Description:
It is a single chain. This protein has 18 helices and no strands. By secondary structure, the protein is mainly α. It has a single domain (17-217, 239-424), classed as MFS general substrate transporter like domains (Growth Hormone, Chain: A, Up-down Bundle). Residues 4-8, 223-227 and 229-236 have low confidence and may be disordered.
Amino acid sequence: MTTGTDASTKPLPRVARTPFYYGWVILIVAALGNFASAPGQSYTFSVFQNSFISDLNMSSTSVSTLYLFGSLTAAGSIIFVGRSLDKYGPRRMMVFAGLFLGLGAIWLSQVSAPWQLFVGFAIMRTMGQGALSLIPATMVSVWFVRKRPIALALMALGGALASSIYPFYGATLIEEFGWRSAWVTIAITGWVLLLAPAVIFIRTSPESIGLFPDGNSPGEPDATTGPDSSTSKSRPVEFSWTVKQATHSRKLWLLIFAGSAQSLVGSGVAFQQVSIMTSKDLSVAAAAGVFGIMAPAAIAGQFISGYLASRVAVRYLLAAGQIGLVISMIMLLQTNELWLAYAYGVVLGTNQGFLININQVVWPSYFGRKHLGSIRGYSNFGIMSAAALGPLPLALSIDLTGSYTTGLIGYMILPPLCAVAALLAGSPGLPQRTG
């Protein structure tokens, strides 16, 4: 995303003359965008899965396979979303994503064949999990540098709240009006929440309205020395990589792989969580209630990582978070009572919040702000591809063995490999020249 030119001495535009840094307004709208991404997230689809299976006469594996290919389509599309974000700016792209997310929900309300379900999944995953995750995080990363970890944690409150509200919201709508009407209501809800604030309040960058990141004055540095920084008086802390430099660097690909376990395991478990819990003789309401436990836990995890990210090298935090994924899967395997389900929800929620925030901080920390949208398009392609694969191992496990155990054990293999990749990525630094 282009960050604009340096602030000049001419009078600031009216929008910049707020009594506080305008970046906090951007952060609120970004959090709202993160909240509005919920219809395209796995935790919302989880409460609709049984409706798809029964009304469309499909198996769990069939639905999960369509979800896989829809998500892979979204992963490919997100590269173009990232480039478009740099080209057209966050306001237009936020409106575009919010509008088409609603249209995708209305499409899902009308599906009657597998190919239609695939199209619906592709639209929802592209605009929800993809665009409305990438755009808000990129906005916040452009407006904040020194305060970026805590700002991203605050932004992620929107997603955490959505993960607790939307499963209940969706389940209630299904029970009261049926699953098709539920999707229409969800579409209207998203449009009401997001479109007007995006049009009115979003601006491209602090420089575009004559300000500096973090609300700094012209003499202040844009960032403070962090544990991964190699600052000197003659060189700024923030690096500006081009897309070509990033894609030719092993750092990008190692970090993408390092973030894949959180995405794959988190998406897979969220998509199948209601089915997993009900297979253990818990009620649908109790299973949906675990999402409600995970949300405040995720908030705690986000602020823990936001605090630590300015004190500990990001790659170490990314590696450490993989341990929590393994512990969570062990706990889920042992869950057979409600209190164990809630304990699992606390551990996984905290760990997911921790890793989600770290996976937002890592890209601007390593590659800078100037081309962040395009670079994050590539990173989100890898991470969304992992998310696309997430539900399939559990679906195959239940269809082939009658149990989710094999799939959950399989989930434990990836996190240790991701931890190694995070450590191998090394410290942030200046880009190497490309040929």
